[in-house]
Design brief:
This protein is α/β, with parallel strands linked by helices. The protein is globular. It starts with 7 loop residues before the first strand and ends in an 11-residue tail after the last helix. The chain has one domain: FAD/NAD(P)-binding domain (3-Layer(bba) Sandwich), CATH 3.50.50.60. It is about 35% helix and about 25% strand. Helix 1 runs parallel beside helix 6 and helix 9 runs antiparallel to helix 10. The strands form four sheets. An eight-stranded mixed sheet has the order 7-6-15-16-17-14-18-21. The protein has a six-stranded mixed sheet with strand order 9-3-2-13-20-19, with helices on both faces. Strands 1-12-11-10 form a four-stranded mixed sheet, with no helix packed on it. The chain is built from twelve helices and 21 strands.
Length: about 400
């Protein structure tokens, strides 16, 4: 193992070039705060990761307001609400009407990552890719030394004042906090999602969430020509158990409407889990996005929560560097954590409400069906759903 003597310095080191890390870096650049993003994978890998595709109103707005929403503004598909399929009937929940005008938007996370990478490339601020964080040290309480290594095990040290871990559930940030005995809560659901991308126009104008005795199903979209669809399957089931025709047949049955069938171009399995760290700050290190919390994808919250965290931390760092106050940084864990806790709860509730293969006994299953029936008739519950689905207010206001 060799050491590269050309070590680096920056004010804020950001670990991870997903939406949270790239957008936080963008916000800090707007505020004139020196920062650097390091990423273990390649740019190509980051831009191809299939993830979320529904944006809250707040996410849509901040991307546009900060100058990285040019394609988003023209290509995102606005949705005034969702449909819930139950008992062979579609029930519309009009989020726009229930929230005085807020919508959600279909726009793939892959496209957001491309937009942000292109912006950083134009500004000459591209992340250092192919670099893994192997050690994090706080030698004096006023700085952090982070050691990174490339795939040849050549190491380099980066000196910084703060570290923002935006590197996901399996990243070094979460491990760093857990090694310090930071408490957390987690729940593994007994079912998973089988997800596909298909070259087929969506058969409905808005997302359909379907509860069926055979399992949950979801019809969504990435564009007017690409459908994104999901099926609830057992954790033990493998992708090879599901050939294309079986997938389409099951989608037709569970949703209760014939899908526009097309070529399946991507197929994957996503475990359903909830996770919440009790702290999002440890010394001079911060957790942002999936490193701090994981939500099942039912409520379409993962990407949106990551952007909300980035807005909050960006505001706190701006207050520290440009106004000389550390109050925001001291409160970041509580500020971001409160919103995260409510969002994790909402996603857990949606998953319980709409899935039928969760290992519940017959009584619990009947009660969940009764709760869904109550929800579909209750203006109050629909209001609660719409407020959360379109996005809770940010913990700190966007500053540009």
């Amino acid at each position: 193992m060799t050491s590269d003597l050309s070590d680096l310095k920056t004010r804020v080191l950001i670990v991870g070039a997903g939406p949270a890390g790239l957008f936080l870096s963008h916000l800090l650049q707007i505020h004139g705060i020196d920062n650097l993003v390091v990423e273990q994978q390649s740019r190509e890998y980051c831009e191809k990761r299939q993830r979320a595709g529904i944006l809250e109103q707040g996410t849509f707005d901040v991307l546009n307001l900060t100058g990285v929403g040019k394609r988003l503004a023209t290509q995102a598909i606005p949705h005034e609400g969702i449909d819930i399929a139950s008992g062979g009937t579609l029930h519309n929940i009009n989020v726009e009407d229930l929230t005085d005008g807020r919508k959600v938007y279909a726009y793939a996370q892959t496209e957001i990552v491309k937009d942000l990478f292109n912006h950083h490339e134009t500004n000459g601020t591209l992340p250092l890719t192919g670099q893994e964080v192997v050690r994090v040290d706080e030698p004096n309480g006023s700085s952090v030394m982070v050691t990174i290594a490339d795939d040849q095990h050549n190491e380099k040290t980066i000196g910084c004042e703060f570290v923002a871990f935006c590197d996901g559930f399996r990243g070094v940030g979460r491990r760093h906090f857990e090694a310090a005995k930071v408490d957390s809560w987690s729940y593994e659901f007994p079912s998973s999602w089988l997800g596909i991308l298909a070259e087929a126009p969506p058969m409905n104008e808005v997302v359909i969430y379907a509860r069926h005795d055979d399992g949950f199903a979801l019809q969504s979209m990435r564009s007017n020509t690409i459908s994104r669809l999901y099926l609830e399957i057992g954790n033990e089931e493998q992708l090879e158990d599901w050939h294309d025709e079986r997938i389409w047949d099951e989608l037709d049955e569970r949703i209760g409407l014939p899908q526009n069938r097309g070529k399946i171009t991507d197929k994957g399995k996503t475990p359903l889990r909830s996770y919440l760290s009790s702290q999002m700050r440890l010394g001079r290190c911060f957790l942002v996005g999936d490193s701090a919390h994981i939500v099942p994808p039912t409520g379409a919250k993962g990407l949106n929560l990551a952007i909300a965290d980035a807005v909050c931390l960006g505001s706190c760092l701006n207050e520290f560097y440009n106004r000389g106050s550390e109050l925001g940084l001291k409160d970041y864990s509580e500020l971001a954590g409160q919103r995260a806790g409510q969002t994790v709860r909402f996603s857990w509730w949606c998953t319980r409400l709409l899935h039928s293969q969760l290992g519940c006994d017959r009584f619990e299953q009947r009660m969940l069906k009764a709760e869904l029936e109550h929800f579909l008739k209750s203006p109050g519950l629909q209001q609660h759903f719409a407020d959360n689905y379109s996005g809770l207010p940010f913990s700190r206001a966007l500053e540009i």
